[in-house]
Write a structure and sequence with these properties.
- This protein is mainly alpha-helical and 322 residues long.
- Strands 2-1-3 form a three-stranded mixed beta sheet.
- It is globular and about 65 Å long.
- The termini are far apart.
- The protein is built from ten helices and three strands.
Length: 322
């Protein structure tokens, strides 16, 4: 490509996981199954929290937002990969790549912020139970979610605009199954120093900051639980944040694992394989963690199943009437 911003005519190629044609049906079936499980599981969490009045609390308000973000997060990358496998094409347009980068950063950042907000919610519930309902009112809940969306949107917009300033060579290949920001920056023909600095600062502020907030919240939670005299009281207090703690552990450990594996091996294909953990596996497991470890969710599911079981005989009985 000639010098200048002629990238609107460029086309990228997503190399994916394997060049072997025999493995493509297996990869397609595996990722389609994980995607459907992710959408179904998170959609079920959203429907349960909306339909059951017992779950109209700040904790489940944040959880339903997290489930919605996880659906959008996986929908940013997986459908395009499945389409490429189905059509036996690796191509993605420049515009499509920029859009994918924007929404990937946007929803990944939202995941991070919402997990931090949920940690703050658990901190108030355990450390300040008497003032919890007063502090965590609907206005504050809405404000926290709104701020999370705005901060994530501004970060993704900045990163995407920075990529727009880059010049790319023709027929560039991205050794990933989606347009990942750092991979795109590495393929640029122009100077990427400013892009690297923005990515570094954004990682420190928008990833390290929320993680520090989560650590602080749980340090206070652990201190509060240790002061409880009865063992039953300790278990009850810990059970209120066990599901969230499991999701936080899964999200950050997989993200850290991807970073360490890519830094150690310097292999783009290894990084692509490892990134499946936090881009696909983590959003898929979140609803299972909350439904299996959370008594409120399980009770709501049983109540919903009971209502369906009651209504079905009534409907069938009405159908038999002349």
């Amino acid at each position: 490509m000639e010098t200048g911003n002629n990238t609107q005519f460029s086309e990228f190629f997503l190399l994916g996981f394997s060049e072997d044609p025999e493995l493509q049906p297996l990869i397609f079936g595996l990722f389609l199954s994980m995607y459907l499980l992710t959408v179904f599981g998170n959609l079920l969490i959203i429907l349960v929290t909306i339909s059951d009045s017992h779950l109209h609390t700040p904790m489940y308000f944040f959880l339903s937002n997290l489930s919605f973000v996880d659906i959008c997060f996986t929908s940013t990358t997986i459908p395009k990969m499945l389409q490429n496998i189905e059509t036996q094409s690796k191509a993605i347009t420049y515009e499509g790549c920029i859009i994918q980068v924007y929404f990937y950063i946007f929803f990944a950042g939202l995941d991070d912020f919402l997990l931090t907000v949920m940690a703050y919610d658990r901190f108030l519930a355990i450390c300040h139970p008497l003032h919890y309902t007063v502090i965590m009112n609907p206005q504050l809940c809405g404000l926290l979610v709104l701020v999370s969306w705005m901060m994530s949107a501004m970060n993704s917009l900045l990163q995407s605009l920075m990529v727009l300033q880059l010049t790319f060579c023709t027929e560039v290949e991205i050794p990933h199954f989606f347009c990942e920001l750092s991979q795109m920056v590495q393929l640029a023909c122009s100077n990427t120093f400013l892009n690297d600095m923005v990515m570094y600062v954004a990682s420190v502020l928008l990833a390290g900051g929320p993680f520090a907030g989560i650590l602080y919240s749980y340090s206070k939670i652990v201190s509060a639980i240790r002061r409880i005299s009865s063992t039953q009281g300790k278990l009850k207090a810990f059970s209120t944040c066990a599901s969230h703690l499991s999701v936080v552990f899964l999200f950050y450990c997989t993200s850290l694992g991807v970073y360490l594996s890519s830094a150690a091996t310097h292999s783009s294909h290894s990084s692509a394989t490892a990134s499946v953990m936090y881009t696909v596996v983590t959003p898929m497991l979140n609803p299972f963690i909350y439904s299996l470890r959370n008594k409120d969710i399980k009770r709501a599911l049983k109540r919903g199943y009971g209502i369906i079981a009651i209504e079905r005989p009534i409907v069938l009985g009405q159908m038999k009437c002349p």
